[in-house]
Amino acid sequence: MTNSETDLLNRMLAELRPNSNIFAVARRGCGKTTIGKQFQELMHRKVIVDRNREYLSADGLYLENAIYAEGLQDFKDKLVICQDQDRYSLIFHFSPYENEDFVFDDICKWTYHAGDLTFVVEEVHHYCKPQFIPKWLKEIAASGRHKNIGYIFTSVSPSLINKLLFSLCDFYILGHLLNKNDRDYFRDQMGDDTIKLAYLKPREFYLYSTTLNESILIHSI
Ligand SMILES: Nc1ncnc2c1ncn2[C@@H]1O[C@H](COP(=O)(O)OP(=O)(O)OP(=O)(O)O)[C@@H](O)[C@H]1O
Ligand SMILES: [Mg+2]
Fold this sequence. Notes:
This protein is of the alpha/beta class. The chain has a single domain (3-219), classed as Rossmann fold. Helices cover 32% and strands 22% of the residues. The protein is built from 8 helices and 9 strands. It has helices at 3-15, 32-40, 72-82, 100-114, 135-143, 163-167, 180-184, 187-190; strands at 21-25, 45-49, 67-70, 88-93, 117-121, 149-155, 171-174, 204-209, 214-219. A 9-stranded mixed beta sheet has the order 3-4-2-5-6-1-7-8-9, sandwiched between helices. The structure holds adenosine-5'-triphosphate and magnesium ion.
């Protein structure tokens, strides 16, 4: 990285807050979850909806520094305990017997009311559609800032999710996007530079700050 790139990256990271809204998008397997986790390390209070059980050790065991909730009731109980802590990662796993759509909206509701946290949802397209967004996910996206809630959402394509989720972002983490329609969602911000997204390698991303209106190439570690 040149000095001016390092300077730009530092200016961007200085804009990052626990209540920043971040959307990471790239085709499958490019490293969205991995780079999202790097950003999460900068956030102290987190609720993570871990649909695919990716927030475990390599052996599939619970991570020592995290709290796990299995199912809605367990989540509610543990969120109350977390409220008194300066740092926590509360990782939610769906119980196999629960209705995912209903439970997800309830998780969003309890998360919204808790406030002061970063809400992480992997593969957010499982919970919304272009024409549909669950009530409390919308509340988090549109009014979360008032409750000091930010989010980190990942998805494989912007075309699958509700526009509200990425129109309210402070940062985009944009990886390899083969499809021109997908790249065009970011044309307003990146202009003709969106073509660069077609040629990114796995683990390469453009970090784009909507506040600074600048982007920089970064790699997940
Ligand atoms: N910087 C990196 N160095 C080494 N391995 C990496 C790096 N980034 C990602 N990987 C590995 O590549 C694989 C895919 O990464 P990851 O799960 O983060 O991608 P993803 O885009 O979230 O995938 P999916 O679309 O399936 O959710 C994982 O096995 C991960 O460990
Ligand atoms: Mg992933």
